[in-house]
Specification:
With about 400 residues, this protein is α/β, with parallel strands linked by helices. The chain has two domains: about 5-240, Metallo-beta-lactamase, Chain A, CATH 3.60.15; about 245-385, 3-Layer(aba) Sandwich (Rossmann fold), CATH 3.40.50.360. It is built from twelve helices and 21 strands. The strands form five sheets. A seven-stranded mixed β-sheet has the order 1-2-5-6-7-8-9, covered by helices on one side. Strands 10-11-12-13-14 form a five-stranded mixed β-sheet, with no helix packed on it. Helix 5 (about 180-195) packs across helix 7 (about 225-240), helix 5 (about 180-195) packs across helix 9 (about 285-290) and helix 6 packs antiparallel against helix 7 (about 225-240). The longest helix is centred in the last third of the chain and has 17 residues, at about 370-385. The radius of gyration is 24 Å and the shape is elongated. The N and C termini lie far apart (about 50 Å). The structure holds MU-OXO-diiron.
Amino acid sequence: MNAREIRNGIMLLGVQDWSRRLFDSLIPLPDGTSYNSYLIPGSQKTALIDTVDPDFEHTLINQLKEIPKLDYVVSLHAEQDHSGSLPMVLKKYPESVLICSAKAKPLLMEHLNIPLERIRTVDDNEEISLGDRTLRFIYTPWVHWPETMSAYLPEDRMLFSCDFMGSHLAGTRMYAGDDPNVLDAAKRYYAEIMMPFRSMIKSNIEKLRPLEFDLICPSHGPIWDNPETIMNAYAKWISDASENKVVIPYISMHGSTAKMVEYLTSELADRHVEVNLFDLAVTDIGKLAMELVDATTIVIGTPTVHVGPHPNVAYATILANAIKPKAKYAAVIGSYGWASKAVEHISAMIPALKVEVLGSVLCKGEPNAKTYQELSDLAELIASKHNI
Ligand code: FEO
């Protein structure tokens, strides 16, 4: 796509990556993504904020073909989807200076071989004048790496947040408005990428709140033209409050675990507890991550393979441990053939989750009357924990 004007000569550059379906060879991207880059002309200097994934550096260079001079190239975040085209941009503009945080400097040198003499680091809250415009850099660590920072343009009331408050969404729309689909994509993005850093996000939001801005320009997805929409959503997602919701990731090999999951789901629904099932044989792992944003309880359903959990369940469990949802309770249910250590194995896989383990219900082969009674008891316990 061509460069497009946002306001007063400030341009949105970058790429809509419609076809990308996986990020970090892990995260599903059902709607593609974008790599946004922003050109900020001042009366004396011109700055470019972030670049694009290196697969698309030719697109960015083409968008810059009418720009004779760049004084500053700002790297808000050193991950390659934003920094990967820096070497090409720095080569095109040999007089330009690369601006980054102190922690980004070694990363950019090590990951991209950027020479030391091209780099100028800025401190937290340091400003650089473009003439009639000012760029203020605000350290916002851990959104998504330790070196990340945001840039604030007070004269135009714009905040450039890179990954923070982004969404993996390819499209031609420039602004998010209040479209629930964009908010949904932002929630998925938060769940998959930001959720492990909840406490850091909280302090970053508190740091940004006093600034006056009416546009948040992330480096993925549409621009937030109603910043309160995404700021309030983040405030809710990172809060300790969870919802009356149970998430059950499960898999079944011969149907016994599926019967247990279905029975427990009915018992919970009868007690007015919302349940979301994810059959790990077919599920979109990103949807599971989204539901984990505000669930109070996780029940893992697994058959036993040899003595441990099914490998797909082990994968989902390790992933849940990595993204650190705020769930307060957990349980394990499932069937086995002759013996099982599945509960012990799963318990060992979730050291990062601050959950109270409510117990387990296992059965040998088909669930029987005793199994169903234990599942009813588990449903009752979960409902009581949810204050139902
Ligand atoms: Fe969009 Fe952490 O990179």
